[in-house]
Specification:
This protein has about 300 residues and is an all-alpha fold. It has 12 helices and no strands. It has one domain. Helix 1 packs across helix 2, helix 1 crosses helix 4 and helix 2 crosses helix 5.
């Protein structure tokens, strides 16, 4: 019975991955019709091989979303939105922002951002449908009300302020750790890589940090399982979406670039997920109930 269920789930992940791959084709057509400039491939990359990698990787992307989908307690539409939005921001928008300052070959920003909104939507909808929530369903308004009820307005202000910039120091710390291994490639502009100025890097990081918070917030609001479960599943999803899939597909890059950066992204993702859980996820009884008990 367990083996049969496992096969069913694998089939669902393949369907979710296929939906993402179809979305790439449809999104590319939409972006072309809008006359947006397509991105250029880095030296040593072949378009057919890149497409093949994307196709083979897509079930892993679906798995990352499926693990989150099981713990989201909203309606089908709100769950599909949360998964699609997280995918689009983490996998595409944030990655393109980083590529714009770290790669000399990065072009076609708006083409990619527009085109990949479609596969993010396709995959999010399919995964939300194929992997229904294990938690109780509730409408978005009720979920937001419950989410906010666990802390006072003053507490939310400083918590959201920290969460909005939390990605900056996390990225900076782990980025410094991999510089001894990868820095020379950027300094010498090898493989289309380049080293941005500090002011440009910080400005981009602040923007990415805010986007990450916006992308993860719907998941945090609608989460109905344990805090530990959210930490593990959100950390894994961010790891897969933010960079691991890109590192797997970046076959033209040397191993000494891909492995350190994969480990960096792994650390970034789980530490950032831990910070968001500590800052935002409910802990204890709602504030109103606690105040009533005291009174």
């Amino acid at each position: 019975m367990i083996f049969k269920q496992a096969l069913v789930n694998v089939g669902k992940l393949l369907v979710g991955g296929f939906a993402f791959s179809v979305g790439i084709i449809v999104g590319g057509i939409v972006a072309s019709l809008l006359r947006l400039q397509p991105p250029s491939l880095p030296q040593g990359a072949d378009s057919a091989t890149v497409i093949l990698y994307s196709l083979l990787e897509s079930p892993l992307l679906a798995l990352a979303l499926a693990l989150l989908a099981r713990g989201l307690g909203g309606s089908f539409l709100t769950r599909a939105f949360a998964l699609s939005f997280l995918t689009w921001i983490a996998y595409t928008v944030n990655t393109q922002l980083e590529a714009a300052i770290f790669a000399t070959f990065a072009t076609g920003f708006w083409f990619t951002v527009v085109a990949f909104a479609v596969p993010a939507l396709f995959c999010g909808v399919v995964v939300a449908f194929l992997f229904p929530s294990d938690a109780r369903a509730k409408n978005l308004k009720a979920a937001v009300r419950e989410f906010l009820s666990h802390r006072t307005s003053a507490e939310w202000v400083w918590r959201f302020a920290i969460a909005a910039v939390a990605f900056v120091p996390i990225y900076w710390i782990f980025g410094i750790m991999v510089v001894p291994f990868t820095g020379s490639y950027y300094q010498q502009n090898l493989y289309g890589l380049t080293m941005p100025t500090v002011d440009r890097l910080l400005a981009t990081l602040f923007g990415r940090s805010i986007l990450f918070l916006l992308a993860c917030l719907p998941v945090a609001v609608m989460w109905q399982k344990s805090e530990r479960s959210l930490f593990l599943r959100l950390g894994f999803a961010l790891f897969v979406l933010v960079g691991f899939l890109w590192m797997l597909a970046g076959y033209w890059l040397p191993t000494f670039v891909r492995i350190p950066h994969s480990l960096e992204i792994l650390a970034d993702s789980f530490v950032y997920a831990a910070v968001l859980v500590l800052l935002l996820v409910k802990s204890g009884a709602p504030v109103r109930q606690a105040q009533s008990a005291v009174g």
